[in-house]
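Hey, I was hoping to borrow your eyes for a little while. For a while now I've been wondering how a particular protein folds. The fold is given in discrete form, as structure tokens running alongside the sequence. Could you read through the record and tell me how the tokens relate to the sequence? Take your time with it, there's no hurry, and the full record follows here:
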Amino acid sequence: MVNLIEQAIVDNPAATLEKGGVVKLGFSKELDEIRQASTDAKRYLANLERQEKERTGIKNLKVGYNRVFGYYIEVSKANLGSVPESYIRKQTLTGGERFYTPELKEYEAVILNAQERIIELETAIFRQVCQQIAAFGDKILASARALAEIDVFAGLAEVAVRYGYARPELTAEDAISIRGGRHPVVERNLGSDGFIPNDTYLCNKDTQLIILTGPNMSGKSTYLKQVALIVLLAQIGSYVPADSASVGIVDRIFTRIGAQEDLAAGQSTFMVEMVEAANILNNATPKSLIILDEIGRGTSTYDGLSIAWAVAEFIHNHPRLRAKTLFATHYHELVELAGFLPRVKNFNVAVSEEEGRVIFLRKVVPGGADKSYGIHVAQLAGLPASVVHRAEEVLAGLEDGQSQMKQRKTVRPRKESPPQLALFGDKSPIIEEIGQLDIDSMSPLEAITRLYELKRKAKEAGK
């Protein structure tokens, strides 16, 4: 096949067959003869003008070509008296006459017919070559697939060696353990000394859902994505950007990341977010990995917090779901879930505050964060100083008002009536709460969630 192409087709053919010049010289004897005849005719016409000027003595005589009238000999009016009798008038112009000769007409036919014939022959030859190559179709596709696999494997191997990737261990366990994990793209932009690696542990048994809090721009999204990419790379057969990794096989990686809209379909940013969340909750399994980068941020605070809270509970409690999940959020209230959902753990991206400056440490550590430093990020983005200062004032007022509300809720009246003794001794508030439950109207999921809450209250009462 390669020999056929090398023998038949020129190295740099034209984009189309309309102009010819596609088939190599020597491949077709008939084509070569026609090309030679055409070349000889063109060479004759190139010399004709010089020859006729010498023969007639007409210095400004011209030989030209017109698509309508073909080849001609043009003579100005001043020199019409010197025109030989062998010239046959073809066209009258304002400034002269155009003529032809029997010999010129003959060469014209050779050139025009040859060009047309050359295109026909080259097209037929090219199609014949294509048909012969098509017979090798299966071998070409097989070779292409093999080369593609080699290209992918070689690329992954080169990256692994060049950037210090580790060979992951793939297991059937429902756990993901990564030490010194890195984001393969971000670390290349920052350089080897600029990226801070982080560990990750997710397990269906004890650390199923991680609530990740922390400031804006601290690296939460990068951390979520690097875990997903490491799992993906491990399962396609690649080494991974980490010191070590043990990856339990996952059936799918679900992500709810970023803000986007589909206005043409009538979907707002929040609607797209909810559609994506619904897809995850309806299709994920205990073998799945879920990456949630904010839920409920496109609506009011209480609405969004409620949705985020309910989504986290559903992922944790529903027996069909219970997928390994990383949940990044600015709703710091979600850290309370770890108090009564046993497989929820709190982590945050650490920061350091020095003399009013915020330093992002990029390190994921246990525990929840209580600030987002959004105003600090706004200042870095270049908001006017007056806007930043006013935002700080408003935030201080809101936090102070919230604190006062909490205090009012916890203040007891000065005079308290003595507690009334129960008829059969002290009765636990938890027992009273259980007695008020409408068990018949509760779903299994609601019952489990309520049980976790009662367990937490009982534990606190015991302290």
About this structure: Residues 102-134 form the longest helix (33 residues). The longest strand covers residues 344-354.
